[in-house]
Amino acid sequence: MQGFFDTKIEFLKGVGPQKAALLNKELNIFTYGDLLQHYPFRYEDRTKFHTVRELNGTMPYVQIKGRIRNIETAGPPRKRRLKAYLRDETGEIELVWFKGVQWVLQKLQPGVEYMVFGKPTAFGSKLNIAHPEIELLTHQNEDVSYLHPIYHTTERLKKKYLDSKAISKLQRTLLQLAEHRIRETLPQKLIADYRLLSKKEALFGVHFPQNTELLQKASFRLKFEELFYVQLRLLKLKLARVDKFKGQIFQDTELLTRFYNEHLPFDLTDAQKRVIKEIYHDMKSGKQMNRLLQGDVGSGKTIVAFICMLLAVGSGTQGVMMAPTEILATQHYQGLKEYADSMGITIALLTGSTKKSERRIIHEYLKSGDLNIIVGTHALLEDVVQFKKLGLAVVDEQHRFGVAQRSKLWQKNRDVYPHVLVMTATPIPRTLAMTLYGDLDISVIDQLPAGRKPIKTVHRYDSNRLRVNGFIKEQIDEGRQVYIVYPLIEESEKLDLKHLMDGYESICRSFPDIPVSVVHGKMKPDAKDYEMQRFVKAETKIMVATTVIEVGVNVPNASVMVIENAERFGLAQLHQLRGRVGRGADQSYCILISDYKLSKEGRVRLETMVRTNNGFEIADTDLQLRGPGDLTGTQQSGVLDLLIADLGKDGKILQVARGAAIGLLDADPDLSHPDNRNIRSQIESMRKTAVNWSRIS
After folding, report:
1. Are residues 564 and 593 in the same domain?
2. Is residue 175 part of a domain?
3. Which of 101, 590, 636, 638 could form a disulfide with 632 if both were Cys (CB 3.0 to 4.6 A apart)?
4. Of 444, 428, 441, 435, which is closest to residue 650 (Cα–Cα)?
5. pLDDT by residue (tens digit) across 443-490?
6. 257 contacts: CB under 8 Å, gap ≥ 6
7. Which of 175, 178, 236, 251 is nearest to 671 (CA)?
8. 406 and 492: one domain?
9. In angstroms, how far is CA 619 from the centroid of its own chain?
């Protein structure tokens, strides 16, 4: 039975080898199962006939019927257009064709009744419909009312007569063949509890819905099933890991308490305290911790990581913190060294730039256990780096490391895996976090430290540049520093570099007495570091840069971030850049400069930035604008191989589906109960490599 859905698409009536090759290449449709899961992306309402009098220019596509009268052509032969008038009992409307005139002429007969479908457009007080679909009215098509599915297709497919209508016809043929072969993939209890349609009803209902209500039920069933299986897979991974990997037990809080009472220079926020409790609970549970810590730039993730390392060190093990760049690793090291020294804890930094002689000492101290904490970059992953006993591995800005790189870090212990804390300052929308990191526990720091003022963000057009320059001058006169960031887009690095250097020159002309630094990705690392350090030491007052500073140095005195061509940045990037300022107690500002010409999405992005500082709200807007694939980068895209669900819009269904998967696994972790037979056979039928277990295969 499964073999039926694996049948090659060329064997479906109406396809054949040539069209099959195109469907393979253009839409990734190789089998009957692939075609059945090529779902419509919108629907045209053909459930009713409108009268001519009801029509107006604001309506979407409409269906009307009437008799054709008066067919005429106009214009020179090469630009000939065809007009026909359709009349019903309420009035008359003009139909017009600019292409395929000869072909349409052969079809049209005056006085005959037709069914017409198209978009009414107003020209002054008159309406017309350009290039309508038109067919003779028969008893059969007059009685068939349904929502007409529209499928994604491509220009190459259309040239081979595989437009949306043709794909719809293939779907109808396939569904008739498949009707008795579609088996149920969810347990009856789930279907009853959540009032779901059967799998067969859902597939018929999503491709050929008789009405809106049926369409909603069909799409809910298919989205629920898809998200349920994604969550089931992630939760089973988590269960397997928890059962398989026992964790080291850390209960000694003596170091932590001493640091908290004697050396912590500020009060922790309630959010930080809550997260530390969650992590402590994991570390003393006897199960290996895998936790994702989310928090906006400047929310105090690093100090939380240090406090958790004290738990590990106090229990006789070591801690490691890995960052994606040398600048960030050095910054973490300098921040933590002060605390470690005050506590008498040994700490070291290991990056690509560490001298050989220093490396040798670090390697020895790590192996002997004399080194308590090490901070570093990818250099930590080398085989020569060995720990006496690693207790906690912290990975910062984890999306910059591949899964294989991360796993290399926690295989440094031979006997027992270390606890793992993954940190990110990129706010991940809840729906995306539940899907990408559904096998991790998630903690969120959703509060900024006391005394931090929210960054004031404004949007200015190019024409306001003199005003912006005046404001920059005022801030520098008050002793502050300023970032000015230009976009750098890979396709045209030369052009963009010129753009940056032009910007640098005009800044130097506008501020002749003010020292300026410039940093971009084409510079050698030591030149880049030299310029960065000049800015850190306040030797320069303005830093002109590309996005290389997105994850970068902490300069508390920098209080203004100017982003040129802000419309060319994504929301996540704008938010990350804004987070470079606002590190000190002074009021900070972010100025977004753009062209007057803005796309609809560009305008939404800039308005969102001006409206809110909340990273999670920004991430949600970003998800709705861009979709999950762009947000997660290529490493994770396999997880989001979704066929019908949309994480930007289906967050509520995801939560319901995750709840259902948790409930099911709580009651039957091995899925051995007879009621879960459908789930077992669905999982077994999937290829071992498949991420999306809801597929028909």
Report:
1. yes
2. yes
3. 636
4. 435
5. 888 887 777 788 999 999 988 889 999 999 999 999 999 999 988 644
6. none
7. 236
8. no
9. 8
